[in-house]
């Protein structure tokens, strides 16, 4: 009998999340029922939203239940199938969770999707051609509504979502400016991803300094902002927004550890007649086909660049996840499971 | 020669505005040039936006210049005309400023508009059938997008804008809930204006208490919020918003005296996927005809109720304005000039 190694959530964080909140559990791979498919997970995706699920608080999603496998997106290969639509060897993307093997009920819509790895690497379906990519696409295209010649700013610019936002903005004729932590990330954002500029927030510890740095990077002001971070960065951007600017609120990772981080200058929202909208991409499934078509095409053509931080083995997932929350990853954070 | 009494802004407030910032000035009524119209102002409108103009700060509008007549909307009667479109006796609405007589260049579009006082009182063109009414209409209809059965909340509910917001929401089949200061205003909001409930913020000095009071008044949560006030009230509303709620940001009067008032819980904007948009109605002239048609019709039919606080004489304008900023008015604040 094959053993399946899993990571369970065993306690909820008080403040910062820690390795103690997780536990490695071994269990046998179950026998399949009719309609089920057994997937060997090749990659697990680690994403900031998971931190929110660890809390037992009102949010857009149910909390992650204790003593169960942590949820998470995965790509992998079908090893056994009792569903006519799948056969061993098929490459699939799904929500397999933090574990080596996942049993999926293939009759449930949206549980499993076959993917083509001829021109697109399997792991990209967890990044630029997956949930992070569509997140970038939706927030930028539908909420920031960039027009050629405008300036678009994105925080966490070297990350899985931010890197796509800037490259899509460039493709639309915008000036793309990133915000990232550290010289390496900023260099990557401008030199490899092709952003016009990148502000290193670690060089600007206070609002005034960050505001000035953004002003220098955005001489025409900011028309669209894709927010992944919150806190001081959001205030510094607000103070540089042009009239009728649009803000897509995708994440506020800086507040995920529980302490709310205020917006210090909300009156700017009125003075500059800004529109700000929070969203989660799984509620906008209608855009996925259009978004994946553009993203997949760009990746296949080598026009959408990305970087991955890959941890090895399921046991490394908790530490890799805690590092992600602190910005230690560089590019899309994955755990390789094979 | 007729004397024109005016109020000038002579200094900018440091913190709270005060009577010292204003000065009563007498000057002769000028002789008309071709195309000009002389209007005897009957009513001056006092509005919160004027406080913003007193500051020399980046905002959506130019600051009010020092040592000139304070800007302001007026209604009055033409007493002399050198423009073919106007004759003595015509009732007009315009931006006549804080003064008894105004000279308008009638060739400039939007400077002057003739109004019909057969079924609508002249002063209403400064309130429910004027800028405050259209402000309410735009923010509610275009930004809050209320649907029958939803709950709409408005702050400063007994004021010129808020009172219209709630009545328009009721006309669209919504539950309308006001926030106002004091038992008299709350009684007026529910008993005379027909709102379903009104929360007296003066009874709830802290966020927790106000949040609970709003929850009681809005058992189904809040779908649309029309914001005139900001500060703690905005946070209390945010914590009661339903998923996909819409917020029209019209005013943040609580922060007009200079000190920024943070939003304490911005992460709710993301968690509840809210849309928030700041606006000023003068940038949306395209909606005025449609809005004025509905508002004028409702006033003429007695279906849109309003109340006015009327100060007498131009010299009383500064004190009446300072009272408005502190919520001392009850209904639309006017100054009667005849």
UniProtKB/TrEMBL annotation, chains A, B:
Signal peptide (residue range): none
Gene3D superfamilies to which the protein is assigned, alphabetical: Medium-chain alcohol dehydrogenases, catalytic domain, NAD(P)-binding Rossmann-like Domain
GO molecular function, one term: oxidoreductase activity, acting on the CH-CH group of donors, NAD or NADP as acceptor
Keywords: Oxidoreductase
Family matches, as Pfam families: ADH_N_2, ADH_zinc_N
SMART domains (alphabetical): PKS_ER
Record CDD domains: PGDH
Record domain Enoyl reductase (ER): where: 17-335
SUPFAM superfamilies: GroES-like, NAD(P)-binding Rossmann-fold domains
Protein name: NADP-dependent oxidoreductase
Record organism: Piscinibacter terrae
Lineage, uppermost ranks: Bacteria, Pseudomonadati, Pseudomonadota, Betaproteobacteria, Burkholderiales
């Amino acid at each position: 009998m094959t053993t399946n190694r899993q990571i369970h959530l065993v306690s909820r964080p008080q403040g910062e999340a820690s390795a103690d909140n997780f536990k490695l559990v071994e269990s046998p791979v179950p026998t399949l029922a009719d309609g089920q498919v057994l997937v060997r997970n090749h990659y697990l995706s680690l994403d900031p939203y998971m931190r929110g699920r660890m809390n037992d608080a009102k949010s857009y999603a149910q909390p992650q239940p204790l003593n169960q496998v942590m949820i998470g997106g995965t790509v992998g290969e079908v090893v056994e199938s009792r569903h006519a639509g799948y056969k061993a060897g098929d490459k699939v993307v799904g929500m397999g969770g933090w574990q080596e093997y996942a049993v999926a009920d293939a009759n449930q819509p949206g549980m499993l999707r076959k993917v083509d790895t001829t021109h697109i690497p399997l792991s990209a379906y967890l990044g630029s051609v997956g949930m992070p990519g569509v997140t970038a696409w939706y927030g930028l295209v539908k909420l920031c509504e960039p027009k050629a010649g405008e300036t678009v700013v994105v925080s966490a610019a070297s990350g899985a979502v931010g890197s796509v936002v800037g490259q899509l903005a460039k493709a639309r004729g915008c000036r793309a400016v990133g915000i990232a932590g550290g010289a390496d990330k900023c260099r990557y954002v401008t030199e490899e991803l092709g952003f016009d500029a990148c502000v290193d927030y670690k060089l600007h510890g206070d609002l005034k300094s960050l505001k000035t740095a953004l002003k220098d990077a955005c001489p025409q002001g900011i028309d669209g902002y894709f927010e992944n971070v919150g806190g001081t960065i959001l205030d510094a951007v607000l103070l540089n927004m042009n009239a009728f600017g649009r803000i897509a609120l995708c994440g506020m990772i800086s507040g995920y550890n529980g302490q709310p981080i205020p917006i210090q200058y909300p009156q700017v929202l009125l003075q500059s007649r800004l529109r700000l909208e929070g969203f989660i991409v799984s509620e906008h499934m209608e855009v996925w086909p259009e978004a994946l078509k553009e993203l997949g095409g760009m990746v296949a053509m080598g026009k959408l660049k990305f970087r991955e931080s890959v941890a090895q083995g399921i046991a490394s997932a908790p530490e890799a996840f805690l590092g992600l929350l602190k910005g230690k990853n560089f590019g899309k954070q994955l755990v390789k499971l094979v």
